[in-house]
Amino acid sequence: MESEDLIDRLRRIGTRYGGVPGTVMPTRPDVVIVRAGPVVVKAHAPGAEREPLVERMRAVVHPALDGIVLRPVTAEVMTAGDRLVTVWPAGTPVDHDDPDAAPWEAAARLLARLHTVPARALPPLRAAGGPARVATTVARLGDRSAAELVVRRAFTCLPPEGTGSGDPGGPRAGLTHGDWHMGQLVRAPEEWILIDVDDLGVGDQAWDLSRPAAWFAAGLLEPEVWHRFLAAYHAAGGIAVPADGDPWERLEIPAQAMTVQLAAAAVATARRQGRALDEVEEVLVEACLRIVRHRTACRGAPTQ
Questions:
Q1: Whether the Cβ atoms of residue 240 and residue 250 lie closer than 8 Å to each other
Q2: Cα 264–152–199 angle (5° rounding)?
Q3: Domains, the chain, ranges and CATH?
Q4: CB 267 within 8 A of CB 285
Q5: Residue 35, beta-bridge partner list
Q6: Tens digits of residue pLDDT in 73-125
Q7: Burial class of residue 29 (count of CB atoms within 10 Å of its CB; 0-12, 13-18, 19+)
Q8: 185-211 pLDDT per residue, tens
């Protein structure tokens, strides 16, 4: 439970920019969101560094990102206690209760447009945050269950570029969202647009496609949906994967790394809630086991 003091401070900021104190909205556990009329006030994760966020806020108000990434109400990074705070226009998120209505093509087009913006056209940005999150998510695991051991083993099988220890400024580096998934889109007011710049930066753009690729490879995303997404990305000029040839030459490592991250988060959540893995979580762990069997460095190694 977040402190009443933090929520009270966020409501005061909401009153300043939105005209009403606002109410707390559901979101991921490390972030607090207060909606205040036409704006949302976001308290970023504990421990978030100020300067990288300031750099990202400078970039997101650049005209090159207009219509691609949601423009904040103000580029100022405020504080509420020990939390960094930003203010954004309110939007309508994807309806998670209606997966058939998910805007896969619109999302693909936005990512393609983002990827074609030269990073050098924006104020300086550091490395995108996506790859590093794999290691931090796995680090939360214990080693008390077979599932935890499998996920940890799959992580050790990944090459450096899949564990966040590779070179983020390599020859394939470009502007990258860093944490793209369907929860990172809102309709504001009528068009879909990307949100959440906490991990915006320079890196391998194939990571922005890694989550749907991982779900497709695990059998959790219908092939028809995956192919629609990829076709729309190519049609909009996306450059993260080649329009001709095998996209998995670029996607294999990011997709495997994302599978490990998703599985690690799922196993940690199940352990925290004191329950068995559900069907989807079991599928993710099985996918990690396949990674162990597939990666050359891990062949023949024990998994339990």
A1: yes
A2: 50
A3: 4-90 (3.30.200), 99-298 (3.90.1200.10)
A4: yes
A5: 23, 40
A6: 999 999 999 999 999 999 999 988 887 789 999 999 999 999 999 999 999 99
A7: exposed
A8: 999 888 999 999 999 999 999 999 999
